[in-house]
Fold these 2 entries.
Entry 1:
Amino acid sequence: MAYKHKVSHEWERAATLRELRAGRLAQDDVCDADFLLRAAATHHGVDSKRACPICGSVLRNTRWVYGEVLGRRAGSARSEKEIAEFVAEGLEFTVHTVEVCRSCRWNHLLTSEVAFRKC
Ligand SMILES: [Zn+2]
């Protein structure tokens, strides 16, 4: 399995934090992870090497899969192993990596990329 068309959202993340620190965004605007996002981070996420930029807690990186080819599995959080299994079925689909803080609810999209089977 491999990934292609990787897009980093680091720039947007940094811009959001700058806006927050400049007082042009409220913490409630950026710390809005809902129950589903936090539960997915607990059950499917892995610890990030980075600390939460808002409160310093451990961040969890969660992978979400998207694409019509996935059927009812589209839009769900998945482990790397499950993603590899979908790719083994011959499917090609988008994977979003989202960081979530379960303490202050900070969340941000980190990358989007396409998982595919490398021949
Ligand atoms: Zn936090």
Note: The chain is about 30% helix and 35% strand.
Entry 2:
Amino acid sequence: MKNAPKMFFATAALFALCGMVWGIQMSATHDHALSPAHGHLNLIGFVMMSVFGTYYALTPHAGRSRAAGFHYLLTTGAVLVLTPGIALAISGQTEVLAQIGSVLAVLTVALFGFVVLKYGVGHTSHEAGSDSGMTTQPAE
Ligand code: HEM
């Protein structure tokens, strides 16, 4: 994927902006009924995406992989399905979107685990010649 950290961070900022405007709207109207949907938009859309963006910034060879592109689409899709899904479930309409979004959210974390195990963390193993999975800085 091209520019994986930038894509993850930019999308995280967009989700945070939406989530915060929604939070202000909830506060202003004193209607907190949909706060779980707001919470998940912020936590998966902003916090989790930022964690993934940080990982791909630390691990550029993972960021360039096709798995990173798929991971980006999966995480974005999970947020876009789960957030309205929770709102619809709370308002008693349908639980189907929340169920699909939950599965997508679980898959995105499973894929993250797979990517970390496959590519390590930092300029790893195959690049640095170590099998520790961690970055090794040259001695000063
Ligand atoms: C402008 C910024 C924000 C405003 C005005 C705002 C406002 C609110 C309000 C009014 C509630 C309902 C509280 C209640 O009913 O007890 C809430 C809940 C929540 N917010 Fe925010 N929020 C903001 C940003 C964030 C951010 C950045 C995050 C996470 C990174 C976040 C996570 C949550 C969570 C986890 C809940 C609880 C959800 C639940 O009850 O299930 N919020 N927020």
Note: The pocket of protoporphyrin IX containing FE is lined by residues 19-20, 23-24, 26-27, 32, 35-36, 38-39, 42-43, 46-47 (CB under 6 Å).
